[in-house]
Amino acid sequence: MSNSDLLQRSLAAVWHPCTQMKQHAAGSDAAPMIPIARGKGVWLYDFDGRRYLDGISSWWVNLFGHCNPRINAALREQLDELEHVILAGCTHRPVVELSERLSALTGGSLGHCFYASDGASATEIALKMSFHAWRNHGRHDKTEFLCLSGSYHGETVGALAVTDVALFKDAYAPLIRAASTVASPDARQAKDGETPVDVARRAAAALASHLEEHHPRIAALIVEPLIQCASGMVMYDPEYLRLARALCDRYEVHLICDEIAVGFGRTGTFFAHEQAGIRPDFLCLSKGISGGYLPLSVVLTTDAVYGAFYDDRVGRGFLHSHSYTGNALACRAALATLDIFADEEVIAANRLLAEHLASCLRPLASHPRVRHLRQRGMIAAFDVLSDDERFAERFHRQALAREILLRPIGNTVYFMPPYVLDSEQCEFLVAGAVAALEATLAA
After folding, report:
1. Per residue in 212-248, pLDDT tens?
2. CATH code, domain carrying 100
3. I need a surface site. Which of 7, 163, 213, 414 has the fewest CB within 10 A?
4. DSSP-based three-state secondary structure for 170
């Protein structure tokens, strides 16, 4: 098969996500769709043999490279044992072992795992579970939710309620029961003389004021710990999480940590919220949980929340499901991913790689068109001064010409590569991005 053959068939039959399909039509000058034939490590290859360094981990999911031998072997073994079974009334070894290991990673404080297939579903589960738990406690007034300005938690109707990105939300506004928003602790908002900690405390003060007035009606606050990814890699100090946890406790509001994108080592610790020394009431995980192999998400919660549903009456149970809940193959991929973390000192290795990435990026801090160069763990980003409405699209095309897959969010260029990136590949990634930036700005 050739690149052109697959492209023609794909454009005729596949409706691609987050995509204006007309931009890929014949004659369009938009960035081309990339036909991928295979992957190996950090590289993706098209049918003509051209390679692309996957600088965004294929939408933030791939942790240990494409076609990872350990995850491949685990899936082959699982295929000969069990591919799937209904999780209502049945159970199986991979889902039990995965639940036990995820709970252990929270020190046992989040001991109950409820499974789904994707991040938006995990968000909806956490929201429904919080609302239903309060109702089961007789707190029928607690029906509202709170999120940060610029937050993103998924694109289903329920998840859009706590998403504050106009591009995803505005068209569907009539369908949505929108949450309230409070100020983001975005460190870029620092005033003269302020530190990121000061910004976090200022945002937490705004949260305190809102909760003081509205807490009787609020079921939960949902946050993306440390990094609000889809709104432009907004980074903030852990102090905000510490203060938010205390405020939620004071005002009897659940805290939901959406670690769908930032969990599994992305920020320098296994879970991002660990850097604040807290635990949430609900922890949403997806993306990297299966190493980028299979759709899987999970919501972890506490004994207290679980206990609110433990009853003889069916109507007080948590009535949510989908056919592939706790899929055995996906759970086995997740177990293999956790094995790699356990056996290969991944977090320590990531810290060294993050230092090298920072060193490669440091010269960009003095670039006249670059602002707010920032990094936390294995996520780095910078903002570009440009009035070009098509900056992201043009940069993407220039990066592809240099064998790099990067997709800016507006004028924010970010890096979220697989953890198996080596030093030479790291330098190749940054050098290509810098060259793509210069070419885009010069056009």
Report:
1. 999 999 999 999 999 999 999 999 999 999 999 999 9
2. 3.40.640.10
3. 213
4. helix
